[in-house]
Each structure stands twice: as C-alpha cells, then as structure tokens.
Amino acid sequence: MSSLNSPAALSIVESSIPETPQRKRNRTTRIKGRRAGFWVYAGLGVVFVGSLFPFYWSFLIGSGDSTTINDPDFSWLPGGNFLANAQTVVSDPAVNFWPALWNSIYSSALIAAAVVFTSTLAGWAFAKLRFPGSKPLLVFVVATMAVPMQLGVVPLYILFADLGWTGQIGAIIIPAITSAFGVFWMTQYLRQAVPDELIEAARVDGASMIRTFWTIGVVAARPAAAMLGLFTFVTAWNNFFWPFIVLDRSDPTLPVALSLLQSNHFVDYSIVLAGVLLSTIPLLLLFVVAGKQLVSGIMQGAVKG
After folding, report:
1. pLDDT at res. 70
2. Domains and CATH numbers, the chain
3. Helices marked H in the chain — which ranges?
4. CA-CA distance, 120 to 294, in Å (whole number)?
5. What is the Cα–Cα distance from 265 to 284, expressed in whole angstroms?
6. pLDDT reported for residue 172
7. What is the CA radius of gyration of the chain?
8. What is the pLDDT of residues 144-175, one digit of tens each?
9. Low-confidence spans in the chain with pLDDT less than 50
10. What is the pLDDT of residue 106?
11. Measured between alpha carbons, how far is residue 89 from residues 79, 150, 168, 270, 285 in Å?
C-alpha cells in the first residue's frame, strides 16, 4: 500500500487520467504562476550591464576630445563633443561616410536575402528529398566551414580581377550568396519542423515539389530563416577583410571607410570611437525593429501543439 502512495506511482496514475480542459487550465495557471528567483534577475542584470558597457565606453570617449583617453583625471561622465566629432566623421572627405553607409546597407541586405533563399532551398533538399549522395554531399558542405577564408583570397582576387569586378560592390556580394552554416542550419531545422506525412499529403493532393516547398517549407522555415537572415546581415555588415582587399578606397563599405580615420600617425580616438558608434546605430535599430518578431517567431516554432 505504501508503494501505491509514492510520488512515482501517483505521477503514473495522474498521467493515465485523460486530459480535460479544466486540468489543462489548472496546469497552465501553475506554469504561469512560477517566477524567476533573485539570482536569475541578478545574473540577467550583470549580462545586460556588461552588454551595454562597450557602447557607453565608445560614447564616453567619442564625446570627449583627443586628450580624453589619456587624461589622468578621467571622468566617467560623457563630455559635450559627440555631435562635433560625429560631424567630423560624416564630413571627412577621406571617409566618404554616406556612400560607404549605403554600400554596407545595400550589400548586407542582398547577402542576407541570398543566403536565406539558397540555404532554405538547399536545406529543404537535404532534409526532405531523397537523392543519391545526399549525405556525403551534406558532409562535404559542412566540412567547407573548416577551410579558412584566407586560403581562398588570392585565387578569388585573381578571378575577380580577370572578370574586371575588382573595385565593384558585386565583388563582395557574389562570393557570399550562399553559406555552408546556413545550409546546415536550415537542414537541421526543416528535418525536425516538417513531418514527412505532411509532404506525402501534399503530394497526394497533387502539389508539385516547388508548390510543396513554397507553401509548406517556406512557412515552416520562417523562424529559422529570420534568425539566419539577421545574423548574416550583421556578419556581412562587420566584414572587413575581403572588402578591404577587393574594393577601392574611393567606394568602400563602412568598416573599411572608418579604418581610414586611424591611418595617420596621430590617432584621435574620440573621432574614431564616434565613427564606430555611428556605424553600430543601424544594427541597433535593426535589432529594435526585428527583435520582437524574431523572438516571437522562434517561440512560435519551438512550441508544439
């Protein structure tokens, strides 16, 4: 009799009782009533402050003058020179700020859209289509992530030089229109998010494979595609190495243009960090605008039923 009153036995008996609307509401109420403890909020507060500190430091130095960073009486309160320093960055003819900003927005948006499209299409093929050599081909695609980009810079530059594309914005877009990580990410997501029975039902109804991909695969892939697109945009925005090599200094992307601020013998870090902060404002706006939709999409894709 004591074994029947044990917690394990009671849980088994409770799980065998059919689910009713009243029991479901009670369970939902209990889950919603749980609150995080003090240490959870304390840890989140520390992470939040640590995440904001680099932005505050950039604003602190960027609002001072050339002597602020080496001042022995350094103040943790911002100065009043940020707008003047930002104006210096924007009006510097060597930086060419506004064309560089447009190049970064234009190239990053196209790269993100291309990576999402090609990765979703390839991920659907690897996850839901059966064709000879699919597994070895997926392994090969994933293995390419282990190859450093620096190994392919010389032949890639020679190729674009022969095509006459050096100095053009397309030279940084074309090599990045697909991503091995994106293919792997979408393959794993679609493999779990789309049941095979749903695809078979679409085929029975007479839908072609393209129609099935568009109406089922694309809809199911939205949460993963949103995350992939956002992080691809950020990666393309911050890319410095390849644009620095292949683009002209007269028509660069924003990271390459801002590097010209410290090309002189004397570096004014208040000007440099003011420019760095200006370059992060579009990314912050992107996260503010797309952050809520991104989180809601991830949660919608994670919750079953």
Report:
1. 82
2. 57-68+79-303 (1.10.3720.10)
3. 7-16, 21-33, 38-62, 82-91, 97-128, 134-143, 153-163, 170-173, 180-193, 196-204, 209-212, 218-220, 222-238, 241-246, 254-259, 269-302
4. 17
5. 32
6. 93
7. 26
8. 988 888 888 999 999 999 999 898 999 999 99
9. 1-17, 31, 303-305
10. 93
11. 17, 30, 24, 10, 20
Any idea which residue has 């989180």 for tokens? 295
DSSP state letter for 265: S
pTM for this model (two decimals)? 0.80
Residue whose pair of structure tokens reads 């996260």 in the numeric block: 287
Nearest Cα residue to 142 out of 203, 105, 98, 183: 183
CA distance 228 to 123: 12
Dihedral sign, Cα of residue 73, residue 77, residue 83, residue 85: positive
**Which of the 8 DSSP states describes residue 42?**
H
Distance CA(80)–CA(270), nearest Å, equals 12
Contacts of 40 (CB under 8 A, 6+ apart): none
Q: What angle do CA 166, 172, 174 make, to 5 degrees?
A: 100
Phi, psi of 284 (to 5 degrees): -65, -40
- Which among 177, 167, 169, 176 is positioned nearest to 103, based on CA atoms? 169
What letter would DSSP give residue 19?
A: P
Give the contacts of 164 (CB within 8 A, at least 6 positions apart).
none
d(CA 283, CA 53): 17
Q: Which residue has the tokens 């674009």?
A: 160
pLDDT of residue 13: 41
